[in-house]
């Protein structure tokens, strides 16, 4: 008998695969590897192509690059020290990022790993005999295209690679756009409609194609003084968003904040999302990232709290107040804020307690916490009261979120800046830094409507654009008032209202020609900053290939 060395196979089995992406890791060794069926092997081969999405969408990776670099988010040195990180968030916001920035490097590395894992899955599935292999190859190709699209958006580069043993061909501008488009079109007839938001489906392909054509002008000419949004591209945006809207697979959510709730995996508005249910990947910090350190949302877990991270800029807040005038945006628009904590109610039942959602302003209220435990009322309920910032020494100041936030000493205090609690804080989070149950949205139906509205508007169909925008505004149980007119500036503002902190703002600002504008603590107008620097570690690693990987202009 031929002697076989000890082997270990890590199989990511995808249970309940028809409606979701449920990644359960199973360790198999040489004694039972022969019991793995072709279907189980195929499931295990495909799963790693998706598995890096939670890491890419962590708060310090894609979110930092997509939001803290814009007018929607600012992260100062809290209290003069916290979130300092050698100034990387200040530099990111000011458009002064360097090629040694760890958030840039980590995002680059994760995207490259995603491409590599997708190529591995494609190659391995070609020899798998299970009937599912054809579908899984298409999904892996879709993920390769998606990672390349993010790479193109952030760094101006796509990597074409068919075999792991090959050196990737670097594509830029037109060639990169055409490569991604061709890949997505190739899988459109193969992928299914009912695989759920955690996987590549027909809806996801249509959404990615729409986004590709919508941003094609910026991808083809990333440093252009004026972007040429062609009629042909806009027609394709209208075509693919129309397929999504008319498919019958999706529906606008009546409850805006349910889109970002702990059980949003089944929300019909989601088209493509990062499957973040707690029993799967966990580690979703989007809910605690901005929240005050002394806000403790879970009666069952006193240690679960916020981190006093980023706030919105005063500039972004004023876009709301300028839109609604004398009416408080919290009263005018359901996307701005939802009150869940009533300050006039002193004692609450722990099972029904939820913190406020949306944009948090002014004095904050929550569970009263003293000496490592929550204070209880005489009837056993939890006591609610004003929150105090307990980081320093007594007497403790109140947690009052102010409009002004900047990089000065006063503007960097722990409580400065209006905060965002868009994603629901996980009911299973023992520390606040783990167990993200809410799927992270990549594409949802409202985006299809607003992409189509933009394409129509760029083709001078203002009436059609207005109808699409108002369809989204009217869909919520408490609808926002209908707009009576639309132009590009109003549409950009509307995208800010609908998609704030959903990793869209940087791409939107570039497409609308606003990324070089000035806002709080940022006045850099260098158009080279539209793309991030290629990490120096990547350039050094490719130094044996002369001229292979060149730094982007301006870095």
From TrEMBL:
Q: List each copy of the RagB/SusD domain by range.
A: 415-555
Subcellular localization, per the record? Cell outer membrane
In terms of Pfam families, this protein maps to: SusD_RagB (PF07980)
Q: PROSITE patterns from the entry?
A: PROKAR_LIPOPROTEIN (PS51257)
User: Keywords on this record?
Assistant: Cell outer membrane, Membrane, Signal
Task: Name the GO cellular-component terms.
Answer: cell outer membrane
Where in this chain does the entry annotate a coiled-coil region? none
Report the sequence similarity comment from the record: Belongs to the SusD family.
What is the name of this protein? RagB/SusD family nutrient uptake outer membrane protein
Source taxonomy lineage? Bacteria, Pseudomonadati, Bacteroidota, Cytophagia, Cytophagales
């Amino acid at each position: 008998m031929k002697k076989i060395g000890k082997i270990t196979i890590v199989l990511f089995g995808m249970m309940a695969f028809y409606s979701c992406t449920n990644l359960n890791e199973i360790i198999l060794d040489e004694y039972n590897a022969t019991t793995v069926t072709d279907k189980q092997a195929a499931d295990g081969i495909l799963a790693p192509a998706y598995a890096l999405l939670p890491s890419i969408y962590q708060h310090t990776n894609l979110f930092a690059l997509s939001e803290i670099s814009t007018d929607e988010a600012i992260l100062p040195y809290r209290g003069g020290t916290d979130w300092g990180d050698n100034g990387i968030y200040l530099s990111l916001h000011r458009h002064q990022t360097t090629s040694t920035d760890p958030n840039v490097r980590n995002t680059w590395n994760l995207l490259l790993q995603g491409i590599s894992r997708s190529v591995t899955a494609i190659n391995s599935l070609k020899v798998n005999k299970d009937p599912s292999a054809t579908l899984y190859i298409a999904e892996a190709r879709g993920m390769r295209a998606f990672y390349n699209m993010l790479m193109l958006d952030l760094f101006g580069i796509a990597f074409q690679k068919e075999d792991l043993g090959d050196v990737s061909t670097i594509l830029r501008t037109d060639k990169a756009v055409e490569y991604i488009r061709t890949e997505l079109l190739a899988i459109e007839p193969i992928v299914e409609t009912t695989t759920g938001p955690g996987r590549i489906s027909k809806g996801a392909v249509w959404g990615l194609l729409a986004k590709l054509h919508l941003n094609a002008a910026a991808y083809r000419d990333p440093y252009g003084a004026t972007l040429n949004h062609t009629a042909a591209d806009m027609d394709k945006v209208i075509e693919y968003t129309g397929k999504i809207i008319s498919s019958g697979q999706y529906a606008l959510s009546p409850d805006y904040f349910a889109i970002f709730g702990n059980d949003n995996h089944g929300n019909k508005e989601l088209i493509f999302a990062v499957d973040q249910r707690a029993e799967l990947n966990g580690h979703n910090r989007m809910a605690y990232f901005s929240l005050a350190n002394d806000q403790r949302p879970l009666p069952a877990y006193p240690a679960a709290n916020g981190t006093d991270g980023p706030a919105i800029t005063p500039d972004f807040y004023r876009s709301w107040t300028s839109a609604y005038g004398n009416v408080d945006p919290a009263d005018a628009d359901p996307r701005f804020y939802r009150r869940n904590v009533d300050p006039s109610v002193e004692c609450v039942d722990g099972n029904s307690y939820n913190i406020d959602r949306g944009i948090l302003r002014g004095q904050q209220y929550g569970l009263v916490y003293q000496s490592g435990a929550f204070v209880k009322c005489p009837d056993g309920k939890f006591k609610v009261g004003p929150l105090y910032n307990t980081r320093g020494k007594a007497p403790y100041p109140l947690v009052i979120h102010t409009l002004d936030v900047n990089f000065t000493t006063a503007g960097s205090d722990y409580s400065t800046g209006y905060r965002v609690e868009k994603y629901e804080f996980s009911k299973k989070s023992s520390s606040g830094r783990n167990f993200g149950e809410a799927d992270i949205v990549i594409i949802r139906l409202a985006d299809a409507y607003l992409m189509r509205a933009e394409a129509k508007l760029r083709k001078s169909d203002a009436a059609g654009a207005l109808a699409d925008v108002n369809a989204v505004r009217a869909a919520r149980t408490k609808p926002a008032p209908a707009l009576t007119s639309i132009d590009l500036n109003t549409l950009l503002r509307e995208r800010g209202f609908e998609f704030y902190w959903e990793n869209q703002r940087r791409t939107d600002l570039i497409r609308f020609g606003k990324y070089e504008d000035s806002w709080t603590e940022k006045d850099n107008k260098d158009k080279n900053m539209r793309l991030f620097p290629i990490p120096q570690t990547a350039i050094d690693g490719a130094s044996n290939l002369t001229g292979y990987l060149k730094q982007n202009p301006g870095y």
